[in-house]
Specification:
The protein is mainly α and 83 residues long. The protein has helices at residues 4-16, 22-37, 39-51, 53-63, 66-82.
Length: 83
């Protein structure tokens, strides 16, 4: 799985030449596989999330990360308790 993710990232510009959003989807699939299999990639991802929290929100949502759903549930519970 670790080799498939970077391979998809490298192939995405070629797929991007075909009409449609295929290149973007292949790139995102490669990033998702790389993040799941590589510890250095995860550390780089965490640093990027701290620097750009808005992008981190959308990437967590797209990757369906458990931490994203815990954070949403915690925020929802805090908002309900303030009522």
């Amino acid at each position: 799985m670790l080799a498939v993710g970077p391979a998809l990232i490298l192939v995405s510009p070629v797929v991007g030449l075909v009409p449609g959003p295929g290149g973007l989807l292949v790139f995102l699939a490669g990033v998702a596989l790389t993040l799941r299999a590589s510890h250095p990639a995860k550390r780089l991802y965490v640093r990027a999330k701290r620097r750009w929290p808005g992008l981190g929100h959308w990437s967590d949502k797209g990757l369906r990360r458990p931490s994203h759903f815990r954070r949403l549930r915690r925020e929802r519970d805090a908002a309900e308790s303030q009522r």
